[in-house]
Amino acid sequence: MLLFLGQSTEILILLIAALAIDAYAGGFVWPRSLSRLNPAHLLGRLARWFDDRLNRPERTPRSLRLRGWVVLLTLLAVTIPAALAVHGLAMTSGFGWALALWLMVAFVTLRRSYDLAENARRLLQGGTLAEARLSVDALTDRDIFRLDEHAVARVAVEALTERFVAWVAAPLLWTALFGLPGLLVQAAAHAGAHILRRGDQALYGRAFTLADRLFQTPAAWLAGLAFAIAAIAVPTAKPLAALRMLLRDGGKAARPDGRADGRALGAMAGALDLSLGGPRLYAALTVPGEWIGSGRARLQPDDVRRALMLYAVSGVVLAGLLAATIVISLRL
Fold this sequence. Notes:
Elements: H1 8-25, H2 32-35, H3 39-54, H4 61-90, H5 94-107, H6 111-126, H7 129-135, H8 149-194, H9 206-230, H10 239-249, H11 263-272, E1 276-277, E2 280-281, E3 286-287, E4 291-292, H12 301-331
Antiparallel strand pairs: 1-4, 2-3
Helix pairs in contact: 1-5, 1-8, 1-12, 3-4, 3-8, 4-5, 4-8, 5-8, 6-7, 6-8, 6-12, 8-9, 8-12, 9-10, 9-11, 9-12, 10-11
């Protein structure tokens, strides 16, 4: 592994601490004034600021693509020096390591997705369909008012999987490999891709889409393997089927727009014997998509519960892999 500037042990310890802190306190709602200082929110707002001012429909396709690359390079020019500055500060003071931990906690997000999916499960089981639909609004860009109870459950499971890749596996992987610059660079690429409107991927969003795919594809492999390992400890889950679906259906796109790799979704579908993905319902149209997995597509609240267990145990698996890497690095 190419670990950053010889500080592998310290970085990995901080990553484990960030996971633990988010798992415990990630559901805490910060005051609005403090939440504005969250680096992840700041990066997202900066990407949206550029999008609002430069992504104009009257521009030519060539101009839009060029603007997207310029914005991506601008974000990298901001994030890389900032990460190097924090790392340099950490080399000389404890405050620097505290600041590094704060950055990791901001970008490693395990708890929030769990809480949103668990709320959807509870409402599917004991609430109304209208309440359950509203509960997944923050998890999807689909038309929630066209979702039946099975589709709501499927949205919850798919969102858990996609967010585990983007908000847990990707920041852990790239921080372990390249330290804080790896963390902030992948976060900048994902922030730019995440705010894109449908139809922008080939023009202004071309640079962000390619960069985000570069970071997310290895993370999807890591998440899929974590799901397969975690399936060993989850009742009724099938670890071998998770590996089989990861390899068989992993090449399919998890989203119709191709912005998410299907490997983690294949592992989740195989472990729980489900079919995920498929067509997506939007306000004015239905967008076709490939099915991933060979099990049931009509998900029940209990399937969301099992997915939540797999999600939580997979977080422990990744923490264990980080700890094992620390032990190996200390013995070398």
